Amino acid sequence: MSQIKAFFFDQDGVIVDTERDGHRVAFNRTFAEFGFDVQWSVEQYHGLLQVGGGKERMMHYLQTQGFGVEVKPEDVPDLIRRLHQRKTDLFIELIESGTLPLRPGVRRVMEEAERLGIVLGICTTSNERSARAISQGLLAGIPFQFVLAGDVVPAKKPDPAIYRLASQRSGLQAEQCVVFEDSHVGAVAAKAAGMHVVATTTRYTENEDLSMADVIVDCLGELDGPRANVRPGARSPVLADGCVHARDVLEWFRSEETSP
Question: Is 12 a catalytic residue?
Fold first, then answer.
């Protein structure tokens, strides 16, 4: 087993708990601006999250539920593009307003990893503008080797394409990489790419099947804030101070080198 050399982070739900009070809100405001009688509830949006990608999510809803008015087939691609562009504008406004803070422990773990010489990357199905707003705004100063976002790959999670691309971009083997994910589809994608997975659950994903993840916690933890609670999984490490540390993560997977 090779030594761990990279940490790859999903964005929505891992870096920022954006889904319920960020993306969902931005989608609903966009629908209202365009005159569509569509408002995605908290529970309804949870189901829609099983469709990877914002444009794909709206397309799925249009095809299965409709927007309350007739949309000609030839108008659909441009409509989805304009809806998604406006939704992204509104989402970025929410990020820049500071109303959606980083999840506990995220910056700390990234800074610890940087000091250990670990390669850092973001791998998200979210729009590239959204990803840049977070990586260059809320996470300013963190030296990401790359930010892979949006349509950078033809198939989105649970397809492993984005993590395979991350392996190529970093020049590392899959087994040298640890992925931080929060959802079933994300963890499936990372595992299908052959990578290790630390799952950090949110209110949306706490009841999802994350049994494929190596370690499951409810957050990464802060010494002066919320502590991390470990859920039963393939590994159930003891967190001495209630926090996941970068060095801990290296040890969890380095131990496989000497396993019988």
Answer: yes
